[in-house]
């Protein structure tokens, strides 16, 4: 048994460490015994067998240092020699040599090389085939040690091992009479499934054989001849095997039955041996949104067994946190069945059982922040419950139980806990190997729902988190729950319980909302009942995941308030990981669906709200420190004008975060932090970084709260960016960017914030002047930290344009000079950030008419467009688009000096670069075509007349045409249509006479009739309605083609298979109708026959849509124009007037037909709208 335990303790998937040098006496002992063994020759005499027996015993009993050993090849050579000395007809010697193989490989952590493995594998397989069955146990142990991390080198033996009649297939079968042999065979199979990075994995047929063997093992009940501990080890090995298949083999569970069967056995194993539970599961779990399968009857006898299995409460154990008695009154009543622990005193007793009395409890826990163990006796060290070896080691000394529980019972519970941990680890791997949409079909099987009145709580992961006596298992269950919740935002977004649903059935949205509420309730119960710091950390992380994904804007209030109030005390917990995760949770609260009215109120609570005086989360701040007060008097006067009413109550969260970042840590937990550097006076770095992230979340989601502290936060940023730690500097720069962005949002034209509620511009100028005095320029120059440089560039681009123009001249020049200089950086991150920042600055009103700055920026951007990095080119193309927008804005100003001074050669360079960029990836292409359209719009007659420009104009338009037509991303095609519309706006371009005219119109008409994306169709229809003169539409045939295409597009405006496109149907019809009326307004006599012909064929359809167009309200369309009904009627009247004034050819009835058509539309419109308006003067009847 001991040998089996060692084999089971090998790290799953982790190659054994390279052997360390043995001490001289050990090394000599091994060499001496090895030399004696090598000197022996095969001999069948009794004395020879005795000598071999003794030599093997000496090698096994040699005192090797743990993890140490001689060279791997020496061990492998010795084992080969040992096997050669033992004929297969000597059962006792075969058993002994098998023990030797198993012992040396595990004790010395050796993986056998391929050549020696070949011989040893052949020997052990032959031994199983030929030796007596009583030897099989030891031989299988040896085989398990040989194949460990060697699966890829055992390919030729797989048919003998895993074939239909293979040894492992047979010995692991339910028909196998010896339970120990069956367990050892499953262990061998599990070791074969281990993956080694870079090595080929088991072929799919063998993966399926192993998976079915493991699944059958887990589904089978314990046989009468198998003891409980062997059964636990059997389950552990099967779980380890499935986990290896999912992790290393990347096995895909595509069949519903296959996945359902696995989830069923995992759910059963998750509760294996849990006191008071006897769960019965179906063979397969099927995906369903309904509550399902709970085979546990609420029997009172089980409850008493559960309570009897718990030790009495240790009265000396004290809680740092005491829940309010009235807060969970109703929950306690609901759970009085004893199914789930909710009473804090029970939790205290539970935790004393294995925390207070277990000397090794500090080694158990959940993955957290890296700590260096500088705390007293390393108690704050954190490890993951799913490290590969944590649940496979079966030594009872590593259990979660104290020796006081006594012998076999304690050992038994340790093995059972390992099974539960193994099932949870396997479940975690399953979650990672299937799509989330598949996983959420099984939501109700693993996530709790509010129980109906009088019924017990269903079994779920929260049952383990609240009830399991092992803190390690509780942490594992919470980690699995976190993995389920991670990325669940879309699934949970359907939840809704704001309105009362009084129906005969429960809607799915209400059921999910109920599940979310129950998760909140259970996790908060677990929070107050938990005393293991590692498990506590995982509870808080799980809450943070839940908060990040739950749709609070669709749920009843109070959920976040409860979380907020209960997490406050943990911010001052003695364990640094608990403190950090508490801040992470607060950050999740202020970032989810921000801004939420409930959170807005929480932020405005008094500092002492929800906190006890003895354990206040509000730092005790000395009056001398500026950041410890509400905004200082001088700042308060300045900020009060920009603060919302009632916001002068200090925000305790902002004060806490500021204090955490810049103040020395307090004595109450300064000695226990393993995360802070030796001699550091500040909080540990992870704590400070998390506090800065919370401040950034506040600035992004609740700027009205953060703006009161603008100058104080500025000082915090300066302190952070002046520190030596680059990560602190980086987070300081991120906070600066968020504050800058918040200020920009306040001053946007569409901002809903009243002017008196905004931060005054003079205060913004003061803020940025301080930023530019030192820390920000230093960060921009810190070339050894490119990420910091890039973040500083992003921060610099978030200056409010109105404030930039008021900055001192030297500060403005500093910003521009730094950015232009950094554009030459060899680091791609820095170059991309710089390109983007220049694209922001070129839109500033105070800079956009500066010809020199615009020209310098253009040259810098053009250089970045040649970069090898796609990200740099994408940012540069975006900036080029912005720069060309600036050219258009300048063109529309009365002062022509900018156009006259701007270099024609530079325009030529920009056109060439944009043409090249339009052939790049979609990320670059979309902005490159935008720039091309603007540049062609900007070209002046003096440029177009030059021969050098003629060719480049032709190339530019051909690039746009090809982009309109290609099957690229819809954003690219939309931008290309938009750019084509810009080209049509330039009266100097020879549209209508140039050879490319027909190609341009052909491309747009093709898109307007056939593109799958309606927004692209809308944009092409808009472009077709831009030319302002009839001659710009080209020949009569060209005009007819455009007219017919628009009519066809109108007819097909509802033809789509994509439901998402239907919402754009009305906008598309509006735009096409406007284009048709625009064409009528420009029609010549030659065009009328074509129009008449179309109306005769499709007149009824066109009439109905034009009437809809007239009757519909002032709905906006994709072109950005919205017309009132009066304006639309006026457009039709003007078209009618134009047609009536056209000099028709003799005998041509087309004009009369068209006029009748338009008059009929207007008559019907006025009749149906109740207006009696004469149409006199609009026709020449």
From TrEMBL:
InterPro entries the record matches: ARM-like (IPR011989), ARM-type_fold (IPR016024), DUF4042 (IPR025283), HEAT6 (IPR052107)
Pfam families: DUF4042 (PF13251)
Listed Gene3D superfamilies: Leucine-rich Repeat Variant
Biased composition (Basic residues): 313-326
SUPFAM superfamilies on file: ARM repeat (SSF48371)
Stretches that traverse the bilayer: none
Positions with biased composition (Polar residues): 301-312
Name of the protein in its database record: HEAT repeat-containing protein 6
UniProt gene name: HEATR6
């Amino acid at each position: 048994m001991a040998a089996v335990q060692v084999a089971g303790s090998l790290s799953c998937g982790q190659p054994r460490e390279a052997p360390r040098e043995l001490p001289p006496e050990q090394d000599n002992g091994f060499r001496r015994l090895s030399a004696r063994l090598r000197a022996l020759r095969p001999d069948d005499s009794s004395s020879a067998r005795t000598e071999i027996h003794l030599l093997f015993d000496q090698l096994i009993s040699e005192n090797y240092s743990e993890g140490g050993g001689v060279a791997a090849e020496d061990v492998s050579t010795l084992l080969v020699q040992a096997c050669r000395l033992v004929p297969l007809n000597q059962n006792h010697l075969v058993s002994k040599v098998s023990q030797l193989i198993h012992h040396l490989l595990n004790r010395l952590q050796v993986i056998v090389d391929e050549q020696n493995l070949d011989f040893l594998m052949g020997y052990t397989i032959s031994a199983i085939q030929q030796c007596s069955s009583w030897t099989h146990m030891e031989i299988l142990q040896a085989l398990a040690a040989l194949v460990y991390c060697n699966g890829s080198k055992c390919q030729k033996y797989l048919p003998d091992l895993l074939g239909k009649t293979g040894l492992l297939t047979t010995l692991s079968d339910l028909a196998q009479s010896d339970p120990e042999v069956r367990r050892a065979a499953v262990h061998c199979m599990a070791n074969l499934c281990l993956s080694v990075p870079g090595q080929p994995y088991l072929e799919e047929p063998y993966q399926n054989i192993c998976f079915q063997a493991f699944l059958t093992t887990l589904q089978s009940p314990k046989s009468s001849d198998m003891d409980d501990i062997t059964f636990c080890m059997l389950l552990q090995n099967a779980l380890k095997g499935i986990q290896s298949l999912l992790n290393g083999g990347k096995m895909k569970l595509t069949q519903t039955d296959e996945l359902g069967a696995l989830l069923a056995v995992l759910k059963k194993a998750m509760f294996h041996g849990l006191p008071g539970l006897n769960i019965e599961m179906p063979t397969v779990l099927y995906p369903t949104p309904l509550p399902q399968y709970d085979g546990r009857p609420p029997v009172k006898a089980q409850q008493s067994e559960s309570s009897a299995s718990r030790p009495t409460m240790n009265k000396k154990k004290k809680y740092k946190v005491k829940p309010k008695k009235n807060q969970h009154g109703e929950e306690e009543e609901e759970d009085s069945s004893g199914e789930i622990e909710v009473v804090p005193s029970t939790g205290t007793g539970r935790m004393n059982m294995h925390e207070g009395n277990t000397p090794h409890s500090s080694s158990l826990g959940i993955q957290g922040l890296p700590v260096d163990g500088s705390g007293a006796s390393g108690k704050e060290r954190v490890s993951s419950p799913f490290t590969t070896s944590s649940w496979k080691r079966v030594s009872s000394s590593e259990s979660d139980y104290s020796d006081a529980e006594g012998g076999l019972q304690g050992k038994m519970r340790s093995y059972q806990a390992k099974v539960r941990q193994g099932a949870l680890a396997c479940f975690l791997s399953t979650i990672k190997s299937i799509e989330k949409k598949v996983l959420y079909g099984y939501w109700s099987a693993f996530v709790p729902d509010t129980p109906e009145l009088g019924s017990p709580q269903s079994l779920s992961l929260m049952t383990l988190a609240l009830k399991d006596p092992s803190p390690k298992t509780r942490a594992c269950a919470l980690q699995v729950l976190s993995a389920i919740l991670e990325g669940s935002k879309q699934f949970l977004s359907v939840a809704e319980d704001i309105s009362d649903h009084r129906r005969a059935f429960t809607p799915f949205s209400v059921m999910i909302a109920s599940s979310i509420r129950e998760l909140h309730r259970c996790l908060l119960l677990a929070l107050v009942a938990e005393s293991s710091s590692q498990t506590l950390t995982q509870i808080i992380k799980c809450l943070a995941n839940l908060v990040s994904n739950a749709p609070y804007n669709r749920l009843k209030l109070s959920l976040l308030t409860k979380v907020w109030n209960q997490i406050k005390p943990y911010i001052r917990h003695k364990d640094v990981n608990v403190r950090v995760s508490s801040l992470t949770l607060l950050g999740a609260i202020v970032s989810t669906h921000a801004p939420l009215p409930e959170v807005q109120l929480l932020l405005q609570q008094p500092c002492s709200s929800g906190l006890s005086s003895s354990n206040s989360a509000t730092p005790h701040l000395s009056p001398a420190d500026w950041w410890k007060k509400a905004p200082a008097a001088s700042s308060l006067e300045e900020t009060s004008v920009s603060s919302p009413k009632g916001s002068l109550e200090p925000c305790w969260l902002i004060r806490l975060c500021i204090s955490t970042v810049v103040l020395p840590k307090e004595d109450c937990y300064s000695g226990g932090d393993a995360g802070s550097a030796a001699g550091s006076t500040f909080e540990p770095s992870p704590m400070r970084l998390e506090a800065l992230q919370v401040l950034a979340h506040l600035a992004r989601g609740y700027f009205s709260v953060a703006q009161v502290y603008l100058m104080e936060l500025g000082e915090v940023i300066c302190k952070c960016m002046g520190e030596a730690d680059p990560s602190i500097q980086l987070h300081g720069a991120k906070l600066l960017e968020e504050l800058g962005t918040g200020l920009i949002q306040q001053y946007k034209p569409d901002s809903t914030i009243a002017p008196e509620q905004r931060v005054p511009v003079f205060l913004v100028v003061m803020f940025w002047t301080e930023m530019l005095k030192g820390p920000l320029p230093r960060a921009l120059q810190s070339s050894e930290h490119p990420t910091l440089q890039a973040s500083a560039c992003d921060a610099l681009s978030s200056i409010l344009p109105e404030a930039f123009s008021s900055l001192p001249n030297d500060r403005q020049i500093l910003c521009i000079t730094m950015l232009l200089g950094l554009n030459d950086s060899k680091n791609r991150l820095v170059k991309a950030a710089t390109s983007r920042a220049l694209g922001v600055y070129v839109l500033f009103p105070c800079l956009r008419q500066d010809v020199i700055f615009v020209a310098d920026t253009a040259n810098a951007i053009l250089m970045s467009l040649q970069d090898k990095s796609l990200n740099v080119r994408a940012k540069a193309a975006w900036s080029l688009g912005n720069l060309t927008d600036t050219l258009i804005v300048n063109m529309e100003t009365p002062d022509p000096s900018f156009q006259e001074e701007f270099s024609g050669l530079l325009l030529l360079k920009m056109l060439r670069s944009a043409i090249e960029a339009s052939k790049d990836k979609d990320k670059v292409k979309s902005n490159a075509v935008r720039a091309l359209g603007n540049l062609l719009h900007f070209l002046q007659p003096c440029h177009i007349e030059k021969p050098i420009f003629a060719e480049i104009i032709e190339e530019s338009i051909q690039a746009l045409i090809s982009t309109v037509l290609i099957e690229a991303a819809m954003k690219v095609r939309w931008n290309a249509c938009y750019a084509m519309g810009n080209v049509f706006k330039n009266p100097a371009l020879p549209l209508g006479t140039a050879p490319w005219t027909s190609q341009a119109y052909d491309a747009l008409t093709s898109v307007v009739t056939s593109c799958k994306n309606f927004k692209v169709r809308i944009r092409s229809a808009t472009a077709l309605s831009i030319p302002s003169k009839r001659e710009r539409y080209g020949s009569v045939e060209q005009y007819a083609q455009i007219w017919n295409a628009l009519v066809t597009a109108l007819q097909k405006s509802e033809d789509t298979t994509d439901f998402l496109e239907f919402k754009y149907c009305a906008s598309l019809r509006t735009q096409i109708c406007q284009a048709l009326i625009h064409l009528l307004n420009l029609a010549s006599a030659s065009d009328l026959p074509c129009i008449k012909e179309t109306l005769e064929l499709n007149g009824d359809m066109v009439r109905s849509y034009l009437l809809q167009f007239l009757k519909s309200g002032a709905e906006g369309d994709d072109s950005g124009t919205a017309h009132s009904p009066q304006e639309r009627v006026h457009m039709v009247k003007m078209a009618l007037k134009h047609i009536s004034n056209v000099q028709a050819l003799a005998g041509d009835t087309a004009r009369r037909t068209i006029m009748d058509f338009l008059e009929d539309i207007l008559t019907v419109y006025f009749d149906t709208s109740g207006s009696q308006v004469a149409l006199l003067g609009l026709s020449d009847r």
